[in-house]
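This is your field. Pick holes in the following sequence-structure pair:
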Amino acid sequence: MIRRPPRSTLSSSSAASDVYKRQVSTQSTGILVLLMSTSPRRSCCHPTRVLMTIATKACLIKHKSVPQWVKFALVHLLSRVTCYWLPNLVLHLMQVSGIGAQWRIQGKRMPNPALASKAIRHNIMTDVIGYWGVAWFFNKLLTTGGNKKHRGNLGDTRVEVQVPLGAKEGDELTVSLPSGEGKYSVKVPAGVVPGDTFPATTPAARQGWSCLRFGGDWPSWFTQLWQVSVGYLGYDMMFYWSHRLLHHRAIYKHIHKVHHEFHTPIGPSSSYEHPAESTAQLFNWYLPIGFAGWLNKELHWSTLLLYNCFRWIETVDAHSGYELPFSLFNLVPSGLGSGLGSGLGPGVRERYHARLPPSGGSRKLWC
């Protein structure tokens, strides 16, 4: 005969089972929270965050011992490698392999090989030697003016913040910036009690009339978008009028004729020009994006990088010799493609280079 266990034994066994179930439930909840906290949206391997990290390291942004004009040069050179040389390599492979031949504007016609090699050497020498002096000058130009206390090589700074009495986790504390620029808010982290200190990072100072900043948090995508747009509109207006001036009879044969040695443009021809024309184009390039920084009271180095990238992709596309149907600049209505005001998209620019003597380009927006 099977004996039934005493009631007290059943009760204790049931209680133990309940305790075990609660422990399993608690552990499961903890695992779920851990998985949620490491979701792709917050992961350090998120593509945007990875690109931000690579750009920051490539431009030596966090190295306070590196002069700011060198960082300025590296920002530009990073955009040149990724958005000038890499697209030109792709275009060369397309031409050699015959891929996309149906999109070539002048068919199989190509520029003189000696001239193409000369343009490539010209661009390499500019990147390796010439641009360092350019970077020093235009960094100086964009950071001129403003509060003198904000000048200098000021990067992000690590400071120790003391928690005052009555403060608790999540409270915002106001910290004076080492640059003397003003105040900065930091939040009290978890596990810190009044009287303790914790490390915090204060952003780099905004410098000069353009409020250029090499450090601090990246701005929102919306801020970067409108600043790049303002910079490009300003560039396009200045390019249009300076370009018309270069076609003046007294100037063209001495300066702009160098650029028109290419009757069949290719990517490297976009920045093959007389030094005087290069100087004019650099002012066209940097003054408008500096104005966008002045409007926003901040021009973050990442916005400058994106602006440079957009400009190089646009100019290589315009001189590529291809009218690619999937190009962003061909998806925009006629006259608002590569060169808003000048109206010099790939097809227009190809005919413009082939015309002898060249004209000043078509008038679309700025006149």
